[in-house]
Amino acid sequence: MADVKGTAQPQGKRPGALPEVRALTVADIRQSLAEGAADFARCPAVGLMIGAVFMVIGMAITLSLLVLHEPWLIYPFAIGFPLVGPFAAVGLYEVSRRLEAGQAPTLGEVLRVIWAQRRREVSWMAFVMLFVFWIWMYQIRLLIALILGRMSFATLDRFVDVVTTTSEGWIFLGIGHVVGAALALVLFPSP
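and the corresponding structure tokens:
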């Protein structure tokens, strides 16, 4: 049974009831990947369109760094990844929902569902992800200044060399990963 917004309501559940949270296992991940691959095989257009959006953002990041020599452009393009993610998930979930209901999803229908999410909680989730991503980007800049501040790395090759071959670089990577993991735990807490 679907509600007014077009999202499915579980059978036997009253509206507003909290969902049951289960522990995630490796078998669950395998099953999800298999079901996602099966859904993609039945309706590849939406998956390819969403993949194309991510590919264009990735190409823009690469071009801004390697071809245009404008590394500052990486920030706005990189911000697109966490903003696009929740909407991409809505589209993929909608394809699976329609296939499970025995309907043949079209790209237009799925795009309408994605567009409708801009007025719902998904927009707030994208904003929260953007905010945490922004904090992460600034903590990286702070760590570069505190740990690698006296080192010179004007090129990407030199930066990779400094980060991977010096003790300061290893400290930078270690602390950066710990801080990034803490931010990820804030954003995606475990039950």
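(Above: one complete record from the training split.) Confidence is low (pLDDT under 50) at residues 1-7.
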